[in-house]
Amino acid sequence: MNVTELSGVPEWLPDHLRDEGVEELYPPQAEAVEAGATAGESLVASVPTASGKTLIAELAMTASVARGGTALYIVPLRALAGEKRTEFEAFEQYGLTVGVSTGNYDSDGEWLATCDIIVATSEKVDSLVRNGAPWLDDLSCVVADEVHLVDDGNRGPTLEVTLAKLRQRNPGLQVVALSATIGNPEILAEWLDAELVDSTWRPIDLKKGVHYGQAVHLEDGNQRELQVRDGEKATEAIVRDTLDDGGSTLVFVNSRRNAEAAARRLAGTVENELTNEERTQLASVAAEIRDVSDTETSEDLASAVERGGAFHHAGLASEHRELVEGAFRDRLLKVVSATPTLAAGVNTPSRRVVVRDWRRYSGEAGGMAPLSVLEVHQMCGRAGRPGLDPYGEALLLAKSHDELDELFDRYIWTEPEAVRSKLAAEPALRTHLLATVASGFASSREGLLEFLDQTLYATQTTEGGRLERVTDDMLDYLEVNDFLDRDGDDLTATSLGHTVSRLYLDPMSAAEIVDGLQAAESRPSALGLFHLVSRTPDMYELYLRSGDREEYTMLANERETELLGMKPSEFEARWEDWLSALKTARLLEDWASELDESEITDRYSVGPGDLRGKVDTAEWLLSAAERLAGELGLEWAPAVREARTRVANGIRTELIDLAGVRGVGRKRARRLYEAGIETRTDLRNADKAVVLGALRGRRKTAENVLDNVGRTDPSMDDVEADGSVAVVGEGENDQSNLGEF
Fold it and tell me: Per the confidence metrics, is the pTM higher than 0.85?
């Protein structure tokens, strides 16, 4: 189908597509148009990675906006939200407005009402529904990207319930669900009352196979020699062979440690093949990586990048990941070793994909377990860049002939698994039942069950009565904890229940926080509050390692009076979780005591991304705790607010006032304080020479800080830094803003 044949879309769109090099639609895209994508019809597009799913969404969204509606694009990850925002910005030249919203779960996102296209994570959309965002009534088209993730036990139920609520709220809503190739796309189409586009077409050929011995064995029966030299591993040989052909390689491994080790080794294969220009550009990227943080992880990543390789995993800061992804897309980086986080939708294709590790540790299995077929196919789908590569090739690695046969049977010749709803799991249902009642989608047990009947779970379950039984158990829990009132069949959210729902808390987290705050007999300490929020289901606790049990048992005994709530016995099953929460709380206390990021990441064996994730979560949970304390009339709200501010900025108590000035942060606040500037008022009236000295002689920084604090004459012209104030050399890594993530 030629783009000039498109109907229902804005008149500018065909010319725009031609300017972008799109003259003809791919077959799945044409099939989607024929199924009604531009005419407001719902559809499920189950097609391979890199086969043009985003354009299907763009056709539906722009057609919807042209009809006077508003379009919502739901993504599973924040990183993907930013990527899609950048793509959709191209439409702003034609008068469309695009907005992104991924955080601040207790707002209604009023500003989004002015946008034509909105990009948000499923969690954010769920929170908007809970907070009664009125502009949701204007939605005419909703795109659910990576909809197969309804199968994910953590995030799937949120996406499932959110789509069900949006469809109930807007009966004529067009839903466009984009999915990787899965085993049961027809079930998703049935659930969403949608047409199905089920295709295996790709714009460039994808060859899948297994490397074994000295050869690549492909799924079509062909073999090709790919020798592994003496002292070389198979992955290194594949990277070398890909480089010889002018391509890049993406290597998937099963752990962070393996990703980092593989990057160090594979960069050695790459570095001698780099041009002088590439070395210069990579050195610049490495410098940006070092500026993100001064941790060992940051230095290791920068060192690998300088040699043309990199690693990518969830322990990296988001800035780290963005720099790696950008350099890989620009073909500066020749090889990236990654955990499966990079397979989840972020646009990072390469000539070759190597699935080095097809097993990973599983707590449920109690050991190593095979990856799913869907996950491996998602990884393989990253191979081949349209317009850049003549083909894509995805290889698994076998160490024996038996394993060669097993990999073909398990992954190469097998269709992906069917996706299944995870909504009936208790944690998910507990959260979404309260939100469904609090946000007015059901006001009785019968109404609640009728709503649940609109979910994917109800569409595909054959286990009669299970959802009803779990629902009754969860309603009992919510009533006992004063989140719901029941009057016969009628259900009403209490004032506390409404607050918990709007705050986007798991009700069990809220119950833990409420019990802890009510048990406090005196002003809670920062550690006590950090420990309280760290033992909620909404915080991922640090693992207890060898030797940790004794260390943190001693700490629990030493600081027992600070810990809120009843301490369990060392012989109770939950003692390990209590100690894990204490370890997490100690990390937060170290951060709020201004310990260097590098020392914290070393002490707790975490990456900078882990630290930032813990701090973000703690800030959110403490903000919720402050609201709950106010809701219940407890006197500890000021103590909670102080702990929240300290962890948000990574500061001790005396810096709270200074660190609140935009542009200051933890390190600059400490320098100013040591120079005798202890408050905002002090800063507003301080000698400019002292301010300039404390801020390392950086004139622009000093002017911005003084302007932000309300100084009427912030200019640093003709001001010399006070020589009595230590000015750190320009080469020092400045972490002044790490507390303002």
Answer: yes
